[in-house]
Specification:
Binding site for ATP: 126-132
Catalytic activity: alpha-D-galactose + ATP = alpha-D-galactose 1-phosphate + ADP + H(+)
Largest sheet: 8 strands, mixed
Number of strands: 12
Shape: globular
Strand content: 15-25%
Protein name: Galactokinase
Function: Catalyzes the transfer of the gamma-phosphate of ATP to D-galactose to form alpha-D-galactose-1-phosphate (Gal-1-P).
Domain Galactokinase N-terminal: 11-60
Bound molecules: 2-deoxy-2-fluoro-alpha-D-galactopyranose
């Protein structure tokens, strides 16, 4: 798949700019195995990078102009000068990810000049698989390599998050950019979102990562996401702490009854989800799919009952997958919520049987047909 994206970027570059690109870079989307909404609470997440990517072909320029073509948006071009303030473009949303990354990068290191780029990708958009983070990280990686800037993958991830928070206006946490920048082939990554320390967790070939798109379009995702952030912040403030990372389950249980009931539920999800994420890391390290499946089911129930970020269509899809998979493995909603994708882990040899068992059961229940992406835990951003 990456070969096709590269060819497309190379061909469009040559055709539209009239010369050949010098370099190619890629950054992947991600699927989160467990640890949802814990990142902005300074907690733990366990995502893996997937083999769906954003690819960039590029070349340095001798002046300060930046020209970028979005091959997937009818070759639309964005062009601006590094000598002028970089401003938000209402008419082309895709261009703001690029502009935001460039603008924030210049605040860390401005030792780069203009460049020409062509971008193309195959991370499904609006499905909760982090197409925007992969775009931000791909651009950051391209600039870093092209101009040999002394900045690390963690800084590229933080820069992507800053662009998204402050320029694009989406208040996301750090998980998506970190896994896109730091992913390791055949591994998931336990990420401590407080220290930004990572630990690779092996994903053996005999465990399949099956992503199932509910094709239920996410709505409310922005406003509800921000509301969950506020409620978690209220929870931390109730305990007099800067974040929920500093709150233990014991102190929560001791004072739960005094709390606003909605805030208490949100806090319970975060605290138990952190614990499940650490347990899931152990389970995966031991190749224990049964335990992993139980933890995924508990995580889904917690997102449904305590964090209230699932929708009936997703709950149905998860229940059908859990039934089809049985005890060896499991399924849960993945990502920000309110629609999007479900992630399933199962023995690789059972994938066809599980898909066959699903038949048209989801369609019969919801009137929507699901889409499957069988993924491989992949390498993070790199030249390609
Ligand atoms: C979205 C956000 F971008 C992430 O930072 C994370 O909070 C996730 O939702 C929920 O776990 O993908």
């Amino acid at each position: 798949m990456i070969t096709e994206l590269k060819q497309r970027c190379e061909q469009r570059f040559q055709h539209l700019f009239g010369y050949a690109p010098t370099d190619f870079f890629q950054a992947p989307g991600r699927v989160n195995l467990i640890g949802e909404h814990t990142d902005y609470n300074q907690g733990f997440v366990l995502p893996c990078a997937i083999d769906y990517q954003t690819v960039i072909s590029c070349a340095k320029r001798q002046d300060n102009r930046v020209r970028v073509i979005a091959a997937d948006y009818d070759d639309q071009m964005d062009e601006f000068s590094l000598e002028e303030p970089i401003v938000f473009r209402e008419s082309a949303m895709w261009a703001n990810y690029l502009r935001g990354v460039v603008k924030h990068l210049r605040q860390i290191n401005d030792q780069f000049q203009g460049m020409d780029m062509v971008i193309s990708g195959n991370v499904p958009q609006g499905a909760g698989l982090s197409s925007s983070a992969s775009l931000e990280v791909a651009i950051g990686t391209a600039i870093q390599h092209l101009w040999q800037l002394p900045i690390t993958p963690v800084e590229i991830a933080l820069n992507g998050q800053a662009a998204e928070n402050q320029f694009v206006g989406c208040n996301c946490g750090i998980m998506d950019q970190m896994i896109s920048a730091m992913g390791k082939a055949d591994h998931a990554l336990l990420l401590d979102c407080q220290s930004l320390k990572t630990e690779s967790v092996s994903m053996p070939d005999d465990i399949a990562v099956l992503i199932v798109n509910s094709n239920f379009r996410r709505t409310l995702v922005g406003s509800e996401y921000n509301l969950r952030r506020e409620q978690c912040q209220q929870g931390a403030a109730f305990f007099g702490q800067p974040s929920l990372r500093e709150v233990s389950l014991e102190s929560f249980h001791a004072r739960e009854a005094e709390m606003d009931p909605t805030v208490a539920k949100r806090v319970r999800h975060i605290l138990t989800e952190n614990q499940r994420t650490l347990e899931a890391t152990q389970a995966l390290n031991q190749g224990d799919l049964k335990r992993m499946g139980r933890l995924m089911a508990e995580s889904h129930n917690s997102m449904r009952d305590d964090f209230a970020i699932t929708v009936p269509q997703i709950d149905r899809l998860v229940a059908l997958l859990q039934e089809a998979i049985g005890e060896e493995g499991g399924a849960r909603m993945t990502g920000g919520g309110f629609g999007g994708c479900v992630v399933a882990l199962l023995p690789a040899h059972k994938v066809d049987a599980v898909k066959a068992a699903m038949a048209d059961r989801y369609f019969a229940a919801t009137g929507i047909k699901e889409t499957y992406y069988l993924c491989h835990a992949s390498q993070g951003a790199s030249s390609c």
